[in-house]
Amino acid sequence: MKIQTLLTTLLFAIQLNSCITPESEQASTEESLYYDIQEMLNPEIARLQSEKPMVRKVTMMNGETKTEEIKVEDWKKELAVFLNANINKPILKGSYEIEKKEGLITYTALKEDLPIKEMKVKYVGEPTTKIEAVEEKETVLFHNKRELGVTITDGKIASYSLVGYQKMPAKDSLVYKIEATILY
After folding, report:
1. pLDDT in tens, 66-117
2. Angle at 67 between CA 64 and CA 72, to 5 degrees
3. How far apart are CA 67 and CA 42, in angstroms?
4. What single string gives the DSSP state of each residue in 140-168?
5. pLDDT-derived band of residue 140, with 50, 70 and 90 as boundaries?
6. How confident is the model at residue 143, as a pLDDT?
7. Helix (H) or strand (E) holding 97
8. 154-164 per-position pLDDT tens digit
9. How far apart are the first and last CA of the chain?
10. Is 147:20 a contact under the CB 8 Å cutoff?
């Protein structure tokens, strides 16, 4: 009886899996609406995970500064805040105004409830050189605002930063700034 249950479960899992289109296949068939930060970051994450460079991180929190050189074990986790700033999703179609100037594309949220309020993509020629985003979330429990930045040099992430604050009722505001430089 146990074998029959196991085989039924296994068969169901195989059938379910065959119905799911892989994420990479979905991305290639969907038209890009806005700048796809994940498309730029994912190959970099794989490269950084493989090369394991050191990172100089300067952290400032409520007036205190700490500098350290570290080896990042999980680059996907380290850059998750930037991956999560992706506005290139079908559900967001028509949610951002696009302004193009020489060397700069600015995406501005048209709806107040969108967490990414603005994204700027700077480039020289074809390659992207800097990505900046402003993320803001407010609930009855907290108000959080972050400015994200990624600098790309010679097609590689050279540095990244996160500047922000968080305010919770009946607590002091938390103000922070993290600047990280990858040491190649």
Report:
1. 999 999 999 999 999 999 999 999 999 999 999 999 999 999 999 999 999 9
2. 125
3. 27
4. SS-EEEEEEEEEEETTEEEEEEEEEEEE-
5. confident
6. 93
7. strand 96-101
8. 989 999 999 99
9. 58
10. no
Closest by CA to 105, choosing from 114, 118, 88, 86, is 118
Distance from C-alpha of 120 to C-alpha of 151, rounded to nearest angstrom:
12
For 124, the token pair is 């020289």
Instruction: Please determine, for residue 138, whether its predicted confidence score (pLDDT) is greater than 70.
Output: yes
User: Side by side, which strands form the sheet with 143-153?
Assistant: 64-71, 54-61, 174-183, 156-167, 143-153, 128-138, 116-123, 104-109, 96-101
Task: Record the pTM.
Answer: 0.79
State the pLDDT at residue 52.
96
Rounded-to-integer distance, Cα 119 and Cα 87, Å? 9
